[in-house]
Amino acid sequence: MIKMIHILLFVLLSVLLSSISNASVNDFCVADLKAPDTPSGYHCKSPTTVTADDFVFHGFVAGNTTNTFNAALTSAFVTDFPGINGLGISAARLDIAHGGSIPMHTHPGATELLIMVKGEITAGFMTPTAVYSKKLKPGDLFVFPQGQLHFQANSGKGQATAFLAFSSSNPGAQLLDLLLFGNNLPSDLIAQTTFLDVAQIKNIKARFGGRG
Amino acid sequence: MIKMIHILLFVLLSVLLSSISNASVNDFCVADLKAPDTPSGYHCKSPTTVTADDFVFHGFVAGNTTNTFNAALTSAFVTDFPGINGLGISAARLDIAHGGSIPMHTHPGATELLIMVKGEITAGFMTPTAVYSKKLKPGDLFVFPQGQLHFQANSGKGQATAFLAFSSSNPGAQLLDLLLFGNNLPSDLIAQTTFLDVAQIKNIKARFGGRG
Amino acid sequence: MIKMIHILLFVLLSVLLSSISNASVNDFCVADLKAPDTPSGYHCKSPTTVTADDFVFHGFVAGNTTNTFNAALTSAFVTDFPGINGLGISAARLDIAHGGSIPMHTHPGATELLIMVKGEITAGFMTPTAVYSKKLKPGDLFVFPQGQLHFQANSGKGQATAFLAFSSSNPGAQLLDLLLFGNNLPSDLIAQTTFLDVAQIKNIKARFGGRG
Amino acid sequence: MIKMIHILLFVLLSVLLSSISNASVNDFCVADLKAPDTPSGYHCKSPTTVTADDFVFHGFVAGNTTNTFNAALTSAFVTDFPGINGLGISAARLDIAHGGSIPMHTHPGATELLIMVKGEITAGFMTPTAVYSKKLKPGDLFVFPQGQLHFQANSGKGQATAFLAFSSSNPGAQLLDLLLFGNNLPSDLIAQTTFLDVAQIKNIKARFGGRG
Amino acid sequence: MIKMIHILLFVLLSVLLSSISNASVNDFCVADLKAPDTPSGYHCKSPTTVTADDFVFHGFVAGNTTNTFNAALTSAFVTDFPGINGLGISAARLDIAHGGSIPMHTHPGATELLIMVKGEITAGFMTPTAVYSKKLKPGDLFVFPQGQLHFQANSGKGQATAFLAFSSSNPGAQLLDLLLFGNNLPSDLIAQTTFLDVAQIKNIKARFGGRG
Amino acid sequence: MIKMIHILLFVLLSVLLSSISNASVNDFCVADLKAPDTPSGYHCKSPTTVTADDFVFHGFVAGNTTNTFNAALTSAFVTDFPGINGLGISAARLDIAHGGSIPMHTHPGATELLIMVKGEITAGFMTPTAVYSKKLKPGDLFVFPQGQLHFQANSGKGQATAFLAFSSSNPGAQLLDLLLFGNNLPSDLIAQTTFLDVAQIKNIKARFGGRG
To answer: How far is A34 from chain D (nearest CA, A)?
Structure first.
């Protein structure tokens, strides 16, 4: 009798599961990074090949800060972590040595939420008329609204660490110095559109590999 | 003279149609279910192969309710009905025999609108502090806001039928019993994270095919 | 001992509920129709005054078809059913007597899904180069992609009934005859921009109350 | 010493650039028009093949207005201008000779913003109860909210020109005359669903190529 | 001469700033929690009263885990942190003592990204046919796609800490035990829609304050 | 007899119009700029007070370019043109005298489409590894994808004019010089986060009114 119920149950389950297994296609969409991208994200890997490992990212650890910036950014964006494809979220880890900083940059179209973990960071963003800046310590969060130019500088005595969350699975990171001085934008055009002196421009271009 | 106008007209029409026929690509996007999915839905079938049949779904009829649940769900989700791809809407039909129910479940990210057709259904959803539940008769609608845990039980004397509309072309249907007891989630982990007794868990696992 | 666990439990619950009760604000947003509208919908009623009745709509019943169109539309849009505010879904009931029709119309920005309930309806939408039209019987669904001009005509021998679901909580219903002939758009301007004869225009204006 | 800094700098840059070059995939998504479309737009061309030319559209010039409408529409939609794929914007140029007009039409789901450049255009849209119409001169803008039926007629003494911007990269242009009279929609069905006389319908069908 | 340039400059700046100061209204929208909510979030505080403090949240610290769950959730949702209003992101901190867990729950419509900070947590979510679960250590991330039922259990030897980011400024946290056993949902209805025994239901209701 | 049909018709119309007049609330949402803003835009003016004038913007004319930049931006954003509220589109007019430019700036979260009207403009945007820049003449369009740092410089012999369309009703305009040198961001912090010399910074601050 109980067996019969079980058989009937599985008849129903197979009916119910027909819609459910279809539906599970969209519960997640792990990126197939070898296929082309679309405006909404990468193609979905076949759900039958997805495993728990697709939803884990390893290596959210301190980067090497022995460099000019005395800073390192370790990203877990969709191209690093295919499981977040289409889900509108990603993360990064920030390590800044004494005296270092992540220079001025924007994330086009993504908001950034900073979680302080260790040390002290002075973080802020600017509008044409105001500066919104604070010294942050462990236990503090700071939000940089989408697309705003912002910075993070170690203002403490030792190493500083922060975790970053973004409202996009692929926020990018447009460093101002690289945009202005790291490509082949002509120096006189930069001077005209920034009011910087040409000498200053050429000086920084030498450091960031810019030509022209 | 009129003929000449017609000729000129068609010259213009062909110009106008050049943008119009391009544009019609996006007026609809019938799913090519054989191609990969993306976060925004399936690839579009070539518009030149689309016919009126792509916008029709047949078989929105009573399912077989001779089973343990005494209930049947007939879905018209994007995988059943490719014409709704990318349009943010889908439907299902609910048939519940006397004493039956659609047990607790969620649709991740989709709102459900229930249209009562026949009989009486007690439907509701819960928040941690309140139950929003009503007895529904033909002529009544009920809305289950997105992602809320909800149920539908036949509370009348005969068969009950309802039509469901969803704010997603692929709403899924996550039955709580299948999530907890239909896969290989370890029983002691279920006990720890639900406060159910292990004996109770094993009992229901036996019915829903769960292992572990 | 068990009592102590319960006390401790409620200590935790009150902590957990502090975020949960806040969060429930956004699980739903029942419209306060007396307050102003915004681009995303109406203000939310205070969650403490929301009851199960806010999620039910009564009166999804046959409208009166004794009129020129031999048809009736009974809407459950956000202004009729505040519980669907912000949820991207709504519904309507269509009753068409023998020989009647819902004339050409659009829903700006909303897709419509038609569920046949009784009788026979010929439904369709047009692009500049094609007509997508079908005779529909109970058990059939038809989808009208967003913003497309479409119609529903009773093509059977008796009454016809269909339920409609929309991908917007306020889809509107722009009847072509009312847009062209029901307001004070000048007849010569209509003639110029539709290629209809002025006599024809004035004739239909007389029926739909148009001036000018 | 400075050289050493530069070396260290490039070590960091290569670390930073690893995320940046990935991220740049999504800063833009130039359409690969040969690949299939998706609900969010076309596949992205490989970023390594993108050049400045992908972001430029040539040919936004006066169209030929020697035709029945005395008007021309030159579109820069995604199928004409792949660089706007996924960016939610597009444009068109409108040239209307003396006495001409762009007849009644809709853009399903896209808002249109008209910028007057030359001459005088009377533009407007209608709701069932009101006409929102104005005579526009250079220096004026007019907005047609999404999905509304609207028209533009030259009401001045010479040529008129306007630029149009749309809130979609593929807004379409559904001309009412083509929807009703340019395909094979049966004349009696048109009569029933528009209240036009069959003679009038057949008359206009002859002009727009409609059959049936 | 330089002075004149400065004067002219400020003339231009005032022109440019007229649009810029308007625009800054939308660069951020700090919530006015005393005004009503809308489907897109709270009303914006007047930008002239916004200071850097609006973008900081203090108190992202360990919660008290001396309770039945041996766990604590510290939320930084929009109702706790008005600066994230309308930005589609929020955060929480999770502290779980030895043997504790955050029981089964969902966030309707929000994806959750977990960043491991200390100890070991076993985290996972389930579909009807699979369990996606992993043991996580510092340096690991895990993503729970939107609306999925999931859990986090301390599987290590000491305290465990994780930071959570959500793709919504108000993700909620629907604990399964509270939804089923913490309100006045009738026990026989729970039994019918979960397949749990009534005795088991009443037992857990006693712990979570449920009536009926 | 015909009269009777008309009476019956108006009975139906009043039924149909009950939903239609409600629906028209959402066909557009003209901003009430005196009420607070929300994340989705301003409150809607009462539809009964809306007239055709709400959909027109006057003053899209050449601005005064007699200033340091030799350039003028005339905006038609939502705060200038309430009729575009909630519609995801806006416009601006650019006039640049010989030798002038609109310096480096971003629109957070909005794409910009430039329509060349007169003269010659060199326009472009940069990623860390490439410059996408072109000389534009009348008949050319250029698109700046959302959030990218970009510029427009008059590279011709006379005046240059362009019209701009944005994929947001409130795109803002974040001029880099104002963000860095127009507020009270400390000079040493700017130096640290841009690699500019302090002397250079102070020099430009003097021109843009910056302190600190």
So the answer is: 11
Say if CB A3 and CB B61 are below 8 A apart: no
What is the predicted pLDDT for the residue at F186?
A: 96
Rounded Cα gap, residues A71 and A94, in angstroms: 7
Condensed to tens digits (0 to 9), the pLDDT of residues F149-176 reads 999 999 999 999 999 999 999 998 899 9
Tokens representing C70? 């031999």
What CA–CA distance (Å, rounded) separates B163 from B144? 13
3-state secondary structure C183-204: CCCCHHHHHHHHCCCHHHHHHH
Average pLDDT over residues F25-38: 87
Interchain CB contact of A119 with D (< 8 Å): no
Q: F156 lies in a domain?
A: yes
Q: Are B66 and B158 in a shared domain? A: yes
Q: Contact B102/B71 with Cβ under 8 angstroms?
A: yes
Task: Give which of A40, A39, A107 is closest to A73, Cα–Cα.
Answer: A107
Residue E82 falls inside a structural domain: yes
Position D44 pLDDT exceeds 80: yes
Instruction: Determine, for residues F69 and E12 on separate chains, whether the beta-carbon distance falls below 8 Å.
Output: yes
The percentage of chain E sitting over the pLDDT mark of 90, rounded to a whole number, equals 82
Pair (D111, D183) in one structural domain: no
Please tell me whether residues D103 and D65 are part of one structural domain: yes
Domain count across chain F: 2
| Cα(E117)–Cα(A84) distance, integer angstroms | 20
Judged against a pLDDT cut of 50, whether residue D155 lies above it is answered with yes
Nearest CA-CA partner of D162 in D133, D183, D188, D142: D142
**F179-201 core/surface letters (b: 16 or more CB in 10 A; e: else):** bbbbbebebebbbbbbbbbeebb
Interface check for C168 against chain D (CB to CB < 8 A): the answer is no
Tokens, residue B78? 């994007």
State yes or no: chains A and F have 3 or more CB pairs below 8 A.
Answer: yes
Residue type, C204: I
Of B131, B195, B196, the CB nearest to E183: B131
How far apart (Å, rounded) are the C-alpha atoms in residues C50 and C54? 6
What single-letter DSSP state applies at residue D43? P
Q: Tell me whether B138 touches chain E (CB under 8 Å).
A: no
AA letter at E143: V
Cβ atoms < 10 Å from Cβ of D160: 29
Decide if E106 is inside a domain: yes
- Which CATH number covers residue C152? 2.60.120.10
Do the annotations mark residue D98 as ligand-binding? no
Residues of A in Cβ contact (< 8 Å) with B64: 11, 15
Residue A111 included in any domain: yes
SS3 category, E102: strand
Dist CA C193 CA C209 (whole Å): 20
pLDDT in tens, D86-127: 999 999 999 999 999 999 999 998 999 999 999 999 999 999
The response to whether A105 counts as a known ligand-binding position is yes
Tell me if A201 sits within 8 A of A187, measured CB to CB.
yes
Question: Which residues of C participate in the annotated binding site for Mn(2+)?
Answer: 105, 107, 112, 150
D84 with D133, same domain: the answer is yes
> Could you tell me the pTM of the whole model?
0.92
Identify the chains in contact with C, defined as 3+ C-beta pairs within 8 A: B, D, E, F
Q: What are phi and psi of E52, to 5 degrees?
A: -55, -30
Pair (F188, F149) in one structural domain: no
- Do F63 and F113 fall into the same domain? yes
Q: Which of D9, D16, D44 sits opposite A175 (nearest CB)?
A: D16
- Does residue B160 sit in the same domain as residue B187? no
- Which residues constitute the domain of residue B190? 178-208
Are residues D160 and D187 both part of a single domain?
A: no
How confident is residue F69, by pLDDT bands cut at 50, 70 and 90?
confident
Residue D17 C-alpha from the chain's centroid: 37
Given pLDDT bands bounded at 50, 70 and 90, which one contains residue D26? low
